[in-house]
Amino acid sequence: MEKKVFERPRYLKKASTHYCPGCGHSILHRLVAEVIGELGIGERTIGVPPAGCAVLAYDYIDVDMGEAPHGRGAALATGIKRVLPDRIVFSYQGDGDIAAIGTAETIHAANRGERITVIFVNNGCYGMTGGQMAPTTVTGQLSTTTPGGRVPLRDGYPVDLSEMLAVAKGTVYIERTSVTSPKNILRTKRAITKAFRTQIDGLGFSLVEVLSPCPTNWKLSPVEAARWAEETMTKTYPLKVIKDLTGTPGQDGN
After folding, report:
1. Cys-Cys link to 174, which of 18, 96, 156, 243 (CB 3.0-4.6 A)?
2. Per-chain mean pLDDT for the chain
């Protein structure tokens, strides 16, 4: 008797992806949809995608969605969660959104301990608008606005938003992962699951930062982009559990 071992997640729409080859968004959409289905929360989940490539999550993840203005993902998610406290509310935001114009909203939502979950997609640039330098662009990284590479004396240092948020007393679970290999993809799925469980248990603010390749704007092939993310981005943004006050075992059983 044949056994089905792989199928489309219930909460992933039957739509052909528009993302560039090698982009991490399509992988992340599937992971989020899988986790929602496995946790049995699809009918009470609300997603909040703001501006940037992340906004099109509503074309692929089959749950209720409320689009936020640029950077205001945490603010809109807070409002929805407070009005509908029985819902599971998550924002899905790129680094040009959450770590630039959305910094204030995100930091204060985290500090208040809002019972929301944030999926933070970090590709080190403004992906949708042409690859300009973002707050997360690493030192030396080429972009359309730093053609010679990011120089801290001129451009400032890369912003490590996850480490900043870990200081806030309202944050309960923060982890940084990536989608650059099968091993890292599985780790990302476990992190997203734990972040949603943190909200289900009413513990506080949870966030998963995911390093995601952007081959088109990095001017690399998909394989080269994945390798660059693993070898270069992780020097500035190491993959690890940054904060965990859930009291449940983490990725390494601790």
Report:
1. 243
2. 94
